[in-house]
Amino acid sequence: MAVLKPVIAALFVSLFVLHLVQATQMGSNSDSVTSYPKEKMDCGGACAARCTLSSRPRLCKRACGTCCARCNCVPPGTSGNLETCACYANMTTRNNKRKCP
């Protein structure tokens, strides 16, 4: 009985390490599938550039900031280019209008 406890403990530790190794490998494989950068982008600067030509720049920056915070990406340019950031392009308001400028 005294030998059984260390064996069971060693088994649990090895299973835990195996689980961590598999989780790390799956995380590195998902990098190739994910199209969004892992590091946090500068939403303020990106949204300021996106909203420069807007007729309502404060409203545009607020909506863009919300979308950027959720998606961690902002399409380049002042309008369009939504194909570069699918999450940003697919967000809608409660009235099913496009949320992100």
UniProtKB/TrEMBL annotation:
Keywords: Signal. It comes from the Eukaryota. Pfam families: GASA. Residues 1-23 form the signal peptide. Belongs to the GASA family. This is Snakin-2. It comes from Heracleum sosnowskyi.
